[in-house]
Amino acid sequence: MKVTIDGIEIEVEPGTTVLQAARMIGGDVVPPAMCYYSKLKDTGGNCRACLVEVSKGSEADPRPMPKMMPSCKTGVMDGMEVKVKTSERALDARKAVTEFLLINHPLDCPVCDQAGECDLQNLSFKHGLEKTRFKEEKRTFEPENIGDKIQLHMNRCILCYRCVHTAEQVCGSRNHGVLNRGDHAQISTYVSAAIDHEMSGNMIDVCPVGALTDKTFRFKSRVWFNKPFDAHRNCDKCCGKTTLWMFGNEIQRVTARKDEFHEVEEFICNECRFDHKEVSDWVIEGPRKFEKWSVINQSNYTRKMDKVVIDTEKQILEGRDQDRKKISMKEVPYKTSEK
Amino acid sequence: MGQKILFEKIHIPGIKTYDVYRENGGYASVEKALKMNPDDITEEVKTSGLRGRGGAGFPVGLKWSFIDKKSGNPRHLVCNADESEPGTFKDRYLMEYIPHLLIEGMITSSFALGANLSYIYIRGEYMWVFKTLERAIKEAYAAGWLGKNIKGSGYDLDLHVHCGGGAYICGEETALIESLEGKRGNPRIKPPFPAVKGLWQNPTVVNNVESIATVPWIILNSGEDYSKIGLGRSTGTKLFSVSGHVKKPGVYEIEMGMTVDEFMNSDEYCGGMIDDRPLKGLIPGGSSVPILPKHLIFKTANGEDRLMTYESLSDGGFATGSSLGSGGFIVYNDTACIVRNTWNFSRFYHHESCGQCSPCREGTGWMEKILWRIENGQGTEEDIDLLWSIQAKIEGNTICPLGDAAAWPVAAAIRHFRDEFEYHVRFPEKIKNRDHFVNEPFEKVKHLLQNTTV
């Protein structure tokens, strides 16, 4: 099947979705995905960040689709033409979704453990407004304890349903889900501290924001101060292939290996994730590479960094002088000589 | 006097019970249908031009013909009785007073679709109607119209009433199916459509109560006869639930093609405005369709009479028209405050959003908060533009039509009544009085706006 995405033609298998086809092309045309997860079935369609414009339905039916289509749930047809970054409508919709996701998000990135590897940060960096138009008080939830391994920050949640699908498909059973509806819908367990399954830690990895974070890593370090290493160990529950996040000689965090779309390559068990924090437990393979714009590369000490020289002091003071005159302290002279 | 199809027998005393209903010719359509070929019934419904009465107006016969009969999976018919649209109450009236008509329609339609297990999904708030239906179904079972080998035809049908938990979103067909399966009522992403994969992944047809209740008449007479009633592509009769500032609110069955003027002002129907206060606006199809201002109610934008048909009510698109929707006819006189009314609708959609997709989950709450601010005198000029921008961002970007339904009333209110929003923003001290719109209808204070500058 042939599909054209932003003018780039690609041959794909029947049953591929538009998003998967775009990922095969790679680069700029890949729509952002906040809820779709290729390793989990039935995910996608909720966040609407990956909306694209289908300008030609297929060879058989060349009409354009009237609505924006979620690329993660739209299967390709032969001869389909899709516009991602060339479509004004699609970009507008993406901006709209970014704004909607951010209005009730607490924006507490400075204290959030996910900062630096957060999909919502990336999305808002690319498509967000610099100012908020939301004046009201943000929606908040009562803090809730869902278990001794995973920290839930419901205020940060964007309800992607990934963790629900993880529990269903990776753990096999789930005792958490979505309660309530509308903007009061929340991820919760009905009985507190109920999430206890040997694969439950994968919910931390699939979470696109900082709603589910690792309790053993809480407030320990910013992710870009850690050095990521690929490592493995013999594990009878999972593949044992992980990324270790080191600070000096200390293993601060263990996660699964994530690819360029921030999706784990293979799920790992809780024992690997939480219980093996000694270097002697692991066979270290080498440093983990990240895409070149990732903030995690800050930890790459081999790169030569120029010394930053700030010589704008003079202009700063001038600006301040003007501001003082303009706004608050009009009456108060800046220099005594001005009187 | 227009022809009555659904309300033909509704005034007969005791029609709720099986015996009276049967004496008055009830279940005759089932007798006739069981001798017919199921595909012929579908064909008959197709010829009738009957359009879905739930709001979208999709032709019923066409929907039936989409059902996947080749797969060999069991098929289902689900009746959508989750009527929760503010302003619409026609289905409740029908089910409450003549429950056997719906059951008769269900049997006939199920036979046409080859469904052996059918459901009526009723909203949780209609508990007494639920009981009425249960009783009626029991009677139908006892009389042999349901169960195994109906009247010796070899056709089996089981019919169940399922009571919802009280969610507007479960009136969306895929959310209804999810809810019927016992899951959280989140709409599914289409495709696949229910006609291919619906209830328990089997081919399913979901139809409104009114659509199904019309089927017996079509079978007893013919699709041809039905298509002669009404006007153009809007065939047959339609129930309208009238509420608001009219003399005689209630449920009316009319032949489509009547003028809005006649419907509102003739004594047979609404009987005109409730008192001598003038008309201000009209919502012709339930809360989610755009409101029409005074000058667009009786005449369309190009000066033709506005008729009670799908086409005429939506004439001019959303700029100068509205939509027939589900027939919730809400009339406002000049003491209605459009801002408060829009806020109230927004509050409803905020409360009823399922929270699955982000534009609707966050957008509906945001719109409600802004409208609340404007309504309480804390709004600013920019808020009106902001509202416009938010509704445009929700519309069309959501999984199900609830996002659109939440956006349209806000869009229409700003489009047609922008000055009233401006009045709320510029005269907070006036509108802080809770019943300002009763003591000082907007028409009286409109002149104040001319003296203000932004």
Automatic annotation (TrEMBL), chain A:
InterPro entries: 2Fe-2S_ferredoxin-like_sf, 2Fe-2S_ferredoxin-type, NADH_UbQ_OxRdtase_ferredoxin, NADH_UbQ_OxRdtase_Gsu_4Fe4S-bd, Prok_molybdopt-oxidoreductase
Pfam family, one: Fer4_Nqo3
GO MF annotations, alphabetized: 2 iron, 2 sulfur cluster binding; 4 iron, 4 sulfur cluster binding; metal ion binding; oxidoreductase activity
Keywords: 2Fe-2S, 4Fe-4S, Iron, Iron-sulfur, Membrane, Metal-binding, NAD, Translocase
Cofactor(s) the protein needs: [2Fe-2S] cluster; [4Fe-4S] cluster
Annotated ranges, domain 4Fe-4S His(Cys)3-ligated-type: 89-128
Subcellular location: Membrane
Family: Belongs to the complex I 75 kDa subunit family.
Protein name: NADH-quinone oxidoreductase subunit G
Organism annotation: Paenimyroides marinum
TrEMBL record, chain B:
Keywords: 4Fe-4S, Flavoprotein, FMN, Iron, Iron-sulfur, Metal-binding, NAD, Quinone, Translocase
Domain NADH-ubiquinone oxidoreductase 51kDa subunit iron-sulphur binding: 339-384
Entry annotated with the keyword Iron-sulfur: yes
Obligatory cofactor(s): FMN; [4Fe-4S] cluster
Enzyme Commission code: 7.1.1.-
Pfam families linked to this entry: Complex1_51K, NADH_4Fe-4S, SLBB_2
Gene3D superfamilies with a match to the protein in the record: 3.10.20.600, 6.10.250.1450, NADH-ubiquinone oxidoreductase 51kDa subunit, NADH-ubiquinone oxidoreductase 51kDa subunit, iron-sulphur binding domain
Enzyme category, top tier: translocase
Statement: the UniProt record of this protein carries the keyword Mitochondrion: no
GO terms for biological process, alphabetical: cellular respiration
UniProt-recorded Gene Ontology molecular function terms: 4 iron, 4 sulfur cluster binding; FMN binding; metal ion binding; NAD binding; NADH dehydrogenase (ubiquinone) activity; NADH dehydrogenase activity; quinone binding
Reactions it catalyzes: a quinone + NADH + 5 H(+)(in) = a quinol + NAD(+) + 4 H(+)(out)
Primary role: NDH-1 shuttles electrons from NADH, via FMN and iron-sulfur (Fe-S) centers, to quinones in the respiratory chain.
PANTHER family: NADH DEHYDROGENASE [UBIQUINONE] FLAVOPROTEIN 1, MITOCHONDRIAL, NADH-UBIQUINONE OXIDOREDUCTASE FLAVOPROTEIN 1 NDUFV1
Similarity comment text for this entry: Belongs to the complex I 51 kDa subunit family.
Name by which UniProt lists this protein: NADH-quinone oxidoreductase subunit F
Organism, as annotated: Paenimyroides marinum
